[in-house]
Each structure stands twice: as C-alpha cells, then as structure tokens.
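Q: Got a minute? One more chain.
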Amino acid sequence: MARKLSTRKRPARELKPIRSRMKISNKVFDDQTMTVLHYFLSNKRITSLDFPIAQGKEAMVFRATTPTGYAAVKIFKYETASFRKRMQYVQGDPRFKVPKGLRSAVRTWARKEFANLSLCIRHGVRSPRPIAFKENVVIMEWLGVGGIPSASLKDVWMDDPQRMLNELLEDVKKMREAGLVHADLSEYNIVVHENHPYLLDVGQSVLLSHEGSEGFFLKDVRNILKFFKRRGVKMTEEDALNFVRGA
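A: Always. Here it is, folded:
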C-alpha cells in the first residue's frame, strides 16, 4: 500500500502549480513519486519543477530549475502495465535482476536508463548527461536553448541532412563499441541540439550479448535510413551497416 505523504513533507510551493495548472494525473504524481521529488528539492538537485516537455505511455519529462540553470526530470509512471511487456529488454542483462512486481519493474527501468546513459557518455555518444536518479525518477542534462527544449529530429529543417545522418551513424557505432544497442531508435527519440543529433530514451537499450540485439540493431539502422531517405539522402543499408560495424 502506498505511503501517504504528510502535509509537512509535501513540497507544495514547488510542485503544486504543476498539479493544478497542468492537471496532470495522479498516475504521475503519486505519493511515492512526490517523496522522491521532495528528496531532490531538499538536497538542491533541483529548486523547482517547472512544466512538462514530453509525455509517453511510460514516462513524462519535465523541465526543472536547478541552482545553476535547468535540468530534465524524467518520471516513470508506476500506474502503467506496459513495463510488464518490456522485461524482455532486462532479461539476460547481468547488471540487473528481472523484477517480479510492477513497481519494482519501473524502478529497474529507471536505474537501467541511468546506467545506459552513463555508459553512452563514457564512450562519447551524444546523449543527455545523467545527473542523478532515485526510485522512478531520473535527472539528466537539459538539452535546450535557455529554457526552451531542443526540437525532435522529426520537427527540424536540416541544411545538411547527409552530415546529420553521418553523425547519427557515428553515435550508433560508438554505442555498439560500448556494448550497447539502442533498440528503439527513430526520429522521435532524437533531438537536434546545437545543430547535432542527441540520442534519447535508452532505457530499453540492450547489451550486445542480448539474444535480440542483432534484430534490434538492424531495425535501428533501417529506421534511420528510411527517415533520411525521405529527406533526400541516399545510403545503402550495406554501407551503413559496414560503417557502424567498422568493416
């Protein structure tokens, strides 16, 4: 049973505007999540949670103000059944135990996203730098100009789409060298920040040792080639795969 937050501990000034103005469901701001947000507010990781910038079935991402600027705060929803179906991405990963309950699955997913982001950063992959995580909340680097978030790849006009494709394939290659496959790469989870592509949503990313890694890898490359083909860039699948594999 969820533990109820006391009025004394609830960070009303910083969080109440989000609930009231944006009318966000309690499926996001349940009591346990509020406890985690209070923890990050108390230790000054963030000073306020400002407004949502992205929403999906499994998580919402908010802009947060920090003592030095902004950060992105990703909150994975406890009240969603989709995580039960995504444990295939955890199975076989020696870094994590396959969770038994739904809430445990959500917390494992958040921990996996933080671990994969850390691995990406260590190997030079353009992705948000992970800052902190606790339970179902991950804080990461803010990708934006001032307080405005950078746009998704699908929404930007590119003056040199060939260069953008080359940079993306370079990052896919670096991920592979780090022992990771994104496993859900598309124009929807890539943002263009300072005129460079950055990879997002790496919670489902799997190790090369995963039994499905090769299939996920092929799908990632095909998704990207399909998108850039619509932008007039011609590259064969063979050339792309050879580049990423270092052939």
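A: The domain at 149-245 is CATH 1.10.510.10 (Transferase(Phosphotransferase); domain 1).
Q: Perfect, thanks.
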